[in-house]
Each structure stands twice: as structure tokens, then as C-alpha cells.
Write a structure and sequence with these properties.
Blueprint: H1 3-12, H2 19-29, H3 34-43, H4 76-84, H5 100-103, E1 151-153, H6 164-175, E2 181-187, H7 195-214, E3 222-227, E4 233-238
Parallel strand pairs: 2-3
Antiparallel strand pairs: 1-4, 2-4
Helix pairs in contact: 1-2
Length: about 240
């Protein structure tokens, strides 16, 4: 409320005719919040204080329309590491050799321990070593190598992300593989070899291998292969 408006109303209130108008002006000067606000101002205390801002009012409002960013592709170093895993013959792991120092001073028993002499306990005697008949070892026949038919894996164009249906199919392959190894392959959608197509093929093969590992297949049982020509990928059990 400005001073000009107040001065004009005070001049009008000089006469008794405009005395009620003066009371209205004075009531307006007491506050524009109404009778309740005027009562709080008169009472004072905590009720007359300004309302505190709600919690988090100074924080930025979250963007609920945001979506996950497209995953970044493999770097040159990661591509080189995956390419090294494409070798069809994994490196041989040498067998652990016994430590002579750990076996020093140990004496192996020459036979079975004697039967305990317990009254009332009839323990059959152990036959002599030359009476023990040892059955010949059972030699299992050599397994016949039979590779299963490859299972096609679909990808969106120029993408190495697996959809939920494809992940479910890979879970079924992992559940029925038994002790077989798994060959995971990817193709780069190119008619001629190129670095970009080979990178896409490697990323697809790695995505299939990661899904198989998440389904319980050991990483050492998975072999990767990639080719620039072709589309999608495949998975195959190798016995």
C-alpha cells in the first residue's frame, strides 16, 4: 500500500462522514493477511514466524524422462584382449608338482592296522594281502566327438545388445550343455572385412559369452569366434 493512497484517505477522513473509511484503511495497514494473520502477529511466538521451506526445496528437480545411455563400445585394448581369446587352442595349464619338503619324514603304512582286542566284540580278521582280489580297472570308452547344431542369435542392426528373449534361449543352452564346451560367435554385417565390422563381431561374441557366464557356464569352457561377414551371432555345443 503506497503513501499517496494513505494521504488521500487521511484527507477524506477529516470529516466525520468518512470516519468509517479511516477505520478500514487502518485495518488494512495492520496487515493484508486477514483476521487470522492479524491475530498471529498480535500473539507472537512460533506461530507468527514465517513457514519453513519444505525439505529438498533447494535441490534440483529430478529428470524422470531420462533414459540409460547407449553402452560404450570396446576400446582398442579390450578388443585386443578379446581377439586373443579367439585362439581355438587354449594354453595348456601345467600340473601341480608335489613338494618334496612336504613329503619328507612321512611313512606310508604297510598294511591294515590290527583288529582291536575288545571283550565281547567279534571282529572278522583282515585277509592277507595276497588273498585280496583287486578287480581290474574299468576303462571307459573314448567319447565320440559330436557337435550340436548351432543356435542362431539375433541382434538389432549395428547393435551388440541381447534382448530378453535371446537371453532366455542362451539360458536354455547353458542348462542343457552338460560337460560340453560352448562356441560363441559373432558377425559384423559386412560384405567385406573392415575394422568397424570386426569390432562389432567381437562385441557380439563377447555379449553372448557374458550371457552364458551369467547363466553358470565357466569362462574356461567358452570359446569365441568372430567374422566380419554375416549377421547376428550363434552359439554351439562342442563335445
Amino acid at each position: 500500500m503506497d503513501g499517496a493512497f494513505l494521504l488521500r484517505n487521511l484527507k477524506l477522513a477529516r470529516s466525520r462522514r468518512f470516519a468509517p473509511l479511516l477505520l478500514v484503511v487502518l485495518a488494512g495497514l495492520a496487515g493484508c493477511s486477514g483476521p487470522i494473520g492479524l491475530y498471529h502477529d498480535v500473539e507472537g511466538g512460533a506461530i507468527a514466524q514465517s513457514r519453513q521451506p519444505p525439505p529438498g526445496d533447494d535441490l534440483p528437480y529430478p529428470n524422470l524422462a531420462s533414459v540409460p545411455q547407449v553402452p560404450a563400445g570396446l576400446t582398442a585394448g579390450e578388443t585386443q584382449v578379446v581377439t586373443q581369446r579367439l585362439s581355438p587352442t587354449p594354453p595348456a595349464v601345467p600340473a601341480t608338482q608335489a613338494d618334496p619338503a612336504a613329503l619328507a619324514g612321512l611313512t606310508l603304512p604297510g598294511g591294515a592296522p590290527p583288529a582291536p582286542d575288545v571283550p565281547g566284540l567279534d571282529v572278522p580278521s583282515t585277509p592277507a594281502p595276497h588273498h585280496v582280489v583287486v578287480p581290474p580297472p574299468v576303462v571307459a570308452p573314448a567319447p565320440v566327438r559330436v557337435d550340436s547344431a548351432p543356435v542362431s542369435i539375433a541382434f538389432a542392426p549395428r547393435s551388440a545388445i541381447l534382448n530378453p528373449g535371446t537371453v532366455k534361449a542362451l539360458d536354455a543352452v547353458a542348462g542343457g550343455r552338460g560337460s560340453a564346451n560352448v562356441l560363441a560367435g559373432g558377425f559384423g554385417e559386412a560384405s567385406e572385412p573392415s575394422p568397424a565390422a570386426m569390432t562389432l563381431a567381437v562385441e557380439r561374441a563377447q555379449a553372448i559369452a557374458d550371457a552364458l557366464t551369467a547363466a553358470g557356464v565357466p569362462a574356461k569352457a567358452i570359446r569365441l569366434t568372430a567374422a566380419a561377414a554375416g549377421s547376428g551371432g550363434f552359439v554351439q555345443l562342442v563335445y
